[in-house]
Amino acid sequence: MVALEIERKFLVANDGWKSAVTRTIRIRDGLIANNNGHKARVRIADSLATIALKSRRRGLTRSEFEYAIPVSHAEEILRVLCDGNIIDKVRHCVSFAGAIWSIDIYEGILSGVVIAEIELSRPDQELQLPEWIGKEVTEDPSYRKINMVAQRIADIRESHSTALG
How do residues 9-39 score in pLDDT, each as one tens digit? Predict the structure, then answer.
């Protein structure tokens, strides 16, 4: 059986979500491989570790296979296999209209980025948007983690060369 991830992503317009947080999770994601949109990643979320294989997106949907692994293995994979492709974020789980939203606040190189995600049971699922939701970025490639990191690195390099120039 193929596991499907059906997800929509949005920018966050304001802090109205903060009063509805039900859980907070510290996450460390490491990209192991990226092949034409297919990817393998390792994640440590609080004290749980997983490895995931994901197909490229087709609209809102992609195949996803995720498996629990020992935290010690995940730490070693992050150290040895991720070549610095590691993202830290704090995920806030927010309940709204019977759905659980994930508000990801990125740290490190992506500091300042805040993305709201919601997983759906089917692509055409009706969704009530909270007032704190901004522009939808589900299909905007500039909001994929790998592209956001590449842009930040380019921005840093440009600002350093401008300062030196």
Answer: 999 999 999 999 999 999 999 999 999 889 9
User: Does residue 150 sit within a domain?
Assistant: no
Residue 111 located in a structural domain: yes
Sign of CA dihedral 33, 34, 39, 43: positive
Encoded amino acid at 58, one letter: R
Residue 156 belongs to some domain of the structure: no
For the chain, the domain total comes to 1
Phi, psi of 137 (to 5 degrees): -125, 15
Domain range for 20 is: 4-139
Compute the distance between CA of residue 141 and CA of residue 8 in angstroms, rounded to an integer: 13
For 115-138, what is each residue's pLDDT tens digit?
999 999 888 888 999 999 999 999
Q: What is the CATH number of the domain that holds 127?
A: 2.40.320.10
Whole-angstrom Cα distance, residue 54 to residue 76? 21
Residues 6+ apart with CB under 8 A from 58: none
